[in-house]
């Protein structure tokens, strides 16, 4: 990322969780530890099904007496409804602030020019009361600013940041192996741990119970993780959601889950039939599968 570029992520939404029970409410639901979130630190987390399957992912940022959830806009309304179902008698207020706040992303290098920052994932500071944080998943994704829409462009001017095409940011995210868009296509189709949430700092295996914790812990402890979500590149042809991926010996090694501009597949990466340097094929396409370098096994 260019140090002067900023990417306005119109596909992101902001929910606000507030109230006396907000912290306990989130702690009982999310895959990460809410105690990691403070005025100086933000975290990445997810909400899973009771069976441990993926539903929603988001970044949690401390804001005033509550928490901002930076999530994909296509998931925001359903996430709002899901959280409301869990609310029951909890003293919690859940608000959708997507019409008021916007998310902007800029480079890691620019983030390091701010006063009082630390070069650590999730490091959070305030800029005129608005949170700026280094992406808790991967430093190469840079930092984010969550700001009121009315103040956005004046603040960007003062920060000497210039609006750039967000497709550059999405392409970077895809190349890093981190899903930038179309998260609804993953819902209930794979386990949260298969989304690489452990490596992306989205799962805490030491915290207490949360929704989907039992299966997540079992897969981890019994070393049952044999499939992972990997980015794929189309060499030629066209992808179709849900279709199988084969090697040259016609052995199925994965399935396409996201078939759009930034495609991903669930890949049986520990099988002897998978060679990350090989070309693979679907019914109508020839593809490469990229194993991110931050996945060590």
Can you characterise this structure?
- The chain is α+β, with helices and mostly antiparallel strands.
- It has 2 domains: 5-176, Gyrase A, domain 2; 226-297, Elongation Factor Tu (Ef-tu), domain 3.
- It is built from 6 helices and 17 strands.
- The protein has helices at 22-27, 73-87, 108-111, 152-158, 166-176, 213-221, and strands at 5-8, 12-18, 43-48, 54-63, 66-72, 93-96, 101-106, 124-127, 130-134, 143-148, 162-163, 228-237, 244-246, 252-258, 264-267, 279-281, 285-289.
- The strands form 3 sheets. It has a 6-stranded mixed sheet, with helices on both faces.
Helical/strand content category: alpha+beta
Low-confidence regions: none
**Looking across the biggest beta sheet, what order are the strands in?**
8-9-10-7-1-11
According to DSSP, the number of beta strands is 17
Main beta sheet, described? 6 strands, mixed
The CATH class of the largest domain is identified as Alpha Beta
CATH superfamily of the largest domain: Probable tRNA modification gtpase trme, domain 1
The CATH topology of the largest domain comes to Gyrase A, domain 2
| Strand residues, percent | 25-35%
Specify the helix fraction band. Answer: 10-25%
**Cα gyration radius (Å):** 19 Å
- Overall number of structural domains: 2
Shape: globular
Secondary-structure element order, N to C? EEHEEEHEEHEEEHEHHEEEEEE
End-to-end C-alpha gap: 28 Å
């Amino acid at each position: 990322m260019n140090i002067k570029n900023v990417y306005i992520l119109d596909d992101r939404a902001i929910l606000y969780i507030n109230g006396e029970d907000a912290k306990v409410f989130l702690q009982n639901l999310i895959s990460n530890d809410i105690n990691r979130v403070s005025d100086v630190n933000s975290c990445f987390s997810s909400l899973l099904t009771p069976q441990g399957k993926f539903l929603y992912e988001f970044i949690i940022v401390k804001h005033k007496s509550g928490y901002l959830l930076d999530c994909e806009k296509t998931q925001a309304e359903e996430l709002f409804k899901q959280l409301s179902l869990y609310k029951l008698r909890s003293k919690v207020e859940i608000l959708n602030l997507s019409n008021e706040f916007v998310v902007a992303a800029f480079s890691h290098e620019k983030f390091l020019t701010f006063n009082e920052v630390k070069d650590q994932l999730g490091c959070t500071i305030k800029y005129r009361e608005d949170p700026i944080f280094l992406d808790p998943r991967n430093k190469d994704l840079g930092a984010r600013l969550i700001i009121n829409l009315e103040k956005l462009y004046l603040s960007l001017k003062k920060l000497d940041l210039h609006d750039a095409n967000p497709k550059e940011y999405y392409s970077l995210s895809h190349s890093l192996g981190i899903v930038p868009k179309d998260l609804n296509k993953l819902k209930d189709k794979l386990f949260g741990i298969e989304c690489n949430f452990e490596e992306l700092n989205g799962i805490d295996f030491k915290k207490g119970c949360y929704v989907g914790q039992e299966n997540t812990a079992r897969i981890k402890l019994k070393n049952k993780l044999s499939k992972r979500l990997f980015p794929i590149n189309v060499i030629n042809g066209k992808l179709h959601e849900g279709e199988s991926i084969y090697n040259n010996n016609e052995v199925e090694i994965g399935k396409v889950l996201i078939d759009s501009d930034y495609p991903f597949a669930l890949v049986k990466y520990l099988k002897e039939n998978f060679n990350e340097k090989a070309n693979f094929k679907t019914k109508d396409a020839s593809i490469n599968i990229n194993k991110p370098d931050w996945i060590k096994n």
